[in-house]
Amino acid sequence: MDRIPRATIERFTVYLQCLRTAERDTTTVSSEQISGKCGVNPALVRKDLAYLGSKGVRGVGYDIAGLAGEIEKVLNLQHEWRVVILGAGRLGSALANYPGFVGRGFSVAAVFDNDPAIVGTRTDGHVVQPVDRLQEAVAEHGAAIGVIAVPAANAQDAADALVGAGIKSILNFAPVLVDVPAGVEVRRVDLATELQVLAYYQPT
Amino acid sequence: MDRIPRATIERFTVYLQCLRTAERDTTTVSSEQISGKCGVNPALVRKDLAYLGSKGVRGVGYDIAGLAGEIEKVLNLQHEWRVVILGAGRLGSALANYPGFVGRGFSVAAVFDNDPAIVGTRTDGHVVQPVDRLQEAVAEHGAAIGVIAVPAANAQDAADALVGAGIKSILNFAPVLVDVPAGVEVRRVDLATELQVLAYYQPT
DNA sequence: TAGATTGTTAATCGATTAACAATC
DNA sequence: TAGATTGTTAATCGATTAACAATC
Lengths: 204, 204
Hints:
Two copies of one chain form a homodimer. Chain A is an alpha/beta fold. In chain A, 38% of the residues lie in helices and 19% in strands. Chain A binds a DNA duplex through helix 3 and strand 2.
């Protein structure tokens, strides 16, 4: 299979959401309909979906259930990804209990913090563990993704700990760039950056 | 001034962070040094910075403090943006008290929720208000940005309420697409999508 | 002056869109 | 068959990179 561009992967998650909210009385959708729902050009919809192989039927459209299944297969959502979270502050515990992860193929395996005042407390289903338990827990749960939800000053330490525990995919919510060795993928979500972009395009 | 591309605006926020963590014993940086710190091609750094006008000095580089000031000016960070948050659940209160907003030009004006069990409670500095107080509060605080941090099922209602209150820029954390009239800008941050992209690129 | 580094042009790359033959 | 819609090619658009003259 061709390497699928990152932009297409992101749109797959959008298509999936649109397909799930489709009316129940239809079994097929056209690229035109998907376009209307998702705000993506219909030609681009078809091009994206062509990465799945020829799953559409000319003159008819795409089978909704089949298409959703194909996308889930490509996105590996049949696999349940286990996630560890570093940082049990407000953001960390919001993420630990984020209902949007359920049904999207992710589950939180464990939550860690270095603050002795927080370690041992419970944030819903998870007892906060000390960071030196990380490596063991990653192995035990087969966790593949780590989330950094600690203050900026501790983000690099958190990244180092995750890398040391064998994690290769990191989602970083701290508002700093962290250094990781080659072969480790970091994706950064900076909440203030999101607001700044919005503010820039603010109609004055 | 040329319309600055969105990608450049996002990188501006990265440059700003890099400049702020620069060593204190130097007053200038080259595009090459910025490139090293931020992981952006040096030619692209120069091209981005050229949008600010000619702020560099050939053979020398860019004045750190001056450059940071220029970027802040373009990003409108001298202006203090007031933000209203809809949804005082875990994510909403994490955002309401997110320390990363301070010093980036944003402050939370008020937090709203429809759940009578939550209205009136305090999440740090903010007393949670009922949503029907939104319009009044937006006017009172001059809020320009709204954040949707409610469950997916209530996201469209939240968007409608924000639009009704005159908000033109919305940051949507709910895992659904919301409909808004033309002239209103919505930026979506979907935490599960971030994880999915990461999972897709997971080295197997 | 010699060395360094910008600002900018031209080349490259990749992603989006338009168009349309294939075909259900 | 006639109408609809895919899959795909070619055209377009925009963003990134390389290269280098300008100049501090």
